[in-house]
Amino acid sequence: MILYLKIINQRKNRYLSSIQYHIKTFKNYHIRELHIKQNTFKNNSYAKYTAYITVATSILGLYYYISYKNIYALNEKFIPCGEFRVDLKTYNLEEVAKHDNKENRIWVTFKQGVYDITDFIEKHPGGSSKILMAAGSSIEPFWVIFANHNTQEIYELLESMRIGNISKEDAIFNTINDNDPYSKEPIRHKVLKINGEKPFCAEPPPSLLIESFITPMELFYVRNHLPVPEIDLKTYTLELIIEEVTKKILKFEDIKKYPKYTITSAIMCAGNRRSEMTKEKQLKGLNWGIGAVGNATWTGTRLCDILKDLKIKEDDYNHIQFEGYDLDPSGTPYGASIPISKAMDSRADIILAYEMNEQPIPRDHGFPIRVIVPGVVGARNVKWLAKIIVSKKESQSQWQQNDYKVFSPNTDWDNVDFSKAPAIQEMPVISAICKPEQSEIIKVINGKINVKGYAWSGGGRKIIRVDVTNDQGETWYTANLDAEDNNAKVGRYWSWTLWSIDLPVKKELKEMEIWTKAVDASYNVQPENIKNIWNLRGFLCNAYHKIKVKLEH
Amino acid sequence: MILYLKIINQRKNRYLSSIQYHIKTFKNYHIRELHIKQNTFKNNSYAKYTAYITVATSILGLYYYISYKNIYALNEKFIPCGEFRVDLKTYNLEEVAKHDNKENRIWVTFKQGVYDITDFIEKHPGGSSKILMAAGSSIEPFWVIFANHNTQEIYELLESMRIGNISKEDAIFNTINDNDPYSKEPIRHKVLKINGEKPFCAEPPPSLLIESFITPMELFYVRNHLPVPEIDLKTYTLELIIEEVTKKILKFEDIKKYPKYTITSAIMCAGNRRSEMTKEKQLKGLNWGIGAVGNATWTGTRLCDILKDLKIKEDDYNHIQFEGYDLDPSGTPYGASIPISKAMDSRADIILAYEMNEQPIPRDHGFPIRVIVPGVVGARNVKWLAKIIVSKKESQSQWQQNDYKVFSPNTDWDNVDFSKAPAIQEMPVISAICKPEQSEIIKVINGKINVKGYAWSGGGRKIIRVDVTNDQGETWYTANLDAEDNNAKVGRYWSWTLWSIDLPVKKELKEMEIWTKAVDASYNVQPENIKNIWNLRGFLCNAYHKIKVKLEH
After folding, report:
1. Where is the chain membrane-spanning (chains A, B) (predicted)?
2. N or C: which end of chain B has fewer CB within 10 A?
3. Domain containing A231: what range?
């Protein structure tokens, strides 16, 4: 019983991953078993479970103590969700189906669980329209596609909305054929650190990242939002639409007939460095390190040339929307848009790329055509391009409207209004230390250690200086800019800059913190602390990059 | 004698403004008298001065105590420079004239003083070429024009290089006719706070600044670098030059024949908010508050239209240089340049403005033509436009090469290399609190105080959010954006944004600090602290604006 209290104490503010689970784990290491929420103990089954627990903890005693850490770790990964709960009422599918609108409340099922998600609809990071597609029925087929929902965090959230059960038979009936849409994904390089399996999201290790100015395709970070579509070059088409009318359909060869342009451009995910921001205050979202960025050459047709052929007048419209061939379960494609003034500006160097580093674009990076909008957040660089839509309206996709936006540190999921912030387009100035890595042990040579990293700014703004300190800003050392795009024109520096410095280290020092900050051509500089730029989606973590290292003299 | 020691102690690290001076002040309040540097006491005249001092301090005793503060204040303003010093050798003008090159050392005279400035040449903020014009002769005529040199700080600096005297006769002979070139300056509004008389530099009070979205001409900050030229519209010409060849000469009426454009744009001095930065670590330069910014409508001819008529190919050149009609004593005009890609881009909205707020541009703001380069530092918005030069080269003016640039906090006058930083063009994001002002006593009404200010970013980047905190960032409140340019196109928001907020105040609070930070369309945000962006010229002080106020409940 003492142990039980100890566990409760250690894990307060979280659901208690039930003691019953530990009993079963002890017996047969089966994992996906019935879990009980902490407050379950307060209801009428209290006596029954207390009995269970008392017996169980007495038996387990010593064993539990020894294996606690292992069990705890397993437990972190597998919070079962949708298991039958004896304390709740059981409904049939017809009853559930009636709850598909706000008046009647909105219910969904997951396995044997019934959930009232009415009050969560507006807070859904993926947008209310997406989640409403499951109203009155099962949410499971959607989570097969949006497989990033299959996390402890989201299981916990769903269970907090639990109101009942459906029978085992109904649950089986309810499960549609969910042939894995991710079964035909490309093979990826094993060195990539996977942040999300389905959709696939991964980044290279920092030390490899800065080994070359041009990132090899295999090491380029991948941020997919849906399964990778299978596209046959022979049948591929790109549809050009003005408002809702198709004006032209281009085949791959039609696109290649336009003059060929090559640019060197970095692409960065808005979530890059989120893992640092979540330490400040917990966030939902992929736990990106500093590797959600890469720098490549992109070859293709200029978007402005295509638009010129459509005889578009810039003043008549406001946005150019892009849609991909990657589809969600409802058939809705990934989508994004950029302002028309940018799209039609030849100086913006936007291209429909069919080559990456002089090779056909790999499937993970948008085969056969990816829009490259240099200086702009990765999310607008739409892969597997299917449609270009000239419109008065911004893309209405969830990723444009309800996702890639940034709010003040005091905005949370209870008060956020996504319509109040503009979609991220151009990115702010950022830098990161790639060598050494966090917590690394470094040999001091001749009183110095070598520090390396990257810096970048959006909007074509060149990196003009990178400053490094190892005494909290008392002394700033200016780094060498080792590699930059020497062919770039003024205001069109799309590439990253790689920098390094031999940083002087005091003799007696056993460990130290290294900070870096970059300055761009507009003399914008990174903010010092994450705290003041924290935002609920964990985007644009461009505060000073700070790492701690240990020193060997 | 105790008093004497006390004074020494209070003013250590500065030149001792001599005791002899105080004696004379007591007698007749004449101010510009002989001063003695502290180390003078260490040389062979030591005995003589010690006698003086002992007698003087005995007599002055009580009187001095009472009037100390007044004397001190007067003394702050008038550090004489160039007075005859009995402890130094006297040279004649021929001897001085020989010292006009580095081999022989470079000497200049000021009044009766002779100075060896050889080691200072490279550190001269105004560039080495300018100061070298005085080599071997008097620096006085230059300081009549660059009258901002007439400060205690620069007198002290010059005196630290003192090596000798010239005779009174030579000093008179040496003084050329210095009819004040500032005698024909326009009349300015008395509400302006003057930061420099000659050249004239002044800013409006913060509370007035944000009273209207469009700044009235009379309240618009003035930052002149030289005397205001007198220009007759009938004889005014604008010379268009490609490299060194004059291609066209336009009269005022020729410029007006082009299509007429109006933009609304803020202009900001790079030195805005320097007074905060100098508190972090002392700086040279005008002590600007937060008012070195204004927002006006500008009407005129587009620069790109003029350049199109010259049939310039963008790829053949790199820069567009501007020269003003304002001249230094050597006849060299004020000059600056911008990249040609910006100059030829119609989206950059650069105009040769002949109207400001629908009136002819006033003399202080560049009558009859000022180049408006929106989103770019004030220094490139050249007034009294005389020449446009298409060139492969950047402007070689001191203001482009050796002045408006920013370095790391560890760069000082001993190690600065101006060639290592790019000239400031586009400005970073900034904001300021204008109401209340620093140290103001504010009445709390219904638990709140009203806070108002401006925010702006260069490069046409719209202000998308302003956050305000009164608890060091624990809580951030998002301000209302009250006034912005609703007609601006995407990426072309040249105007400032005025914001306000009713900031909640805790009941018991007697005083508090208010911070503000703005975010622009690239999601660039201001850095927290001035310390980490401190730079030796005191430019681009865009850290959080922080003020302390007292509260009345």
Report:
1. 46-66
2. N
3. 193-402
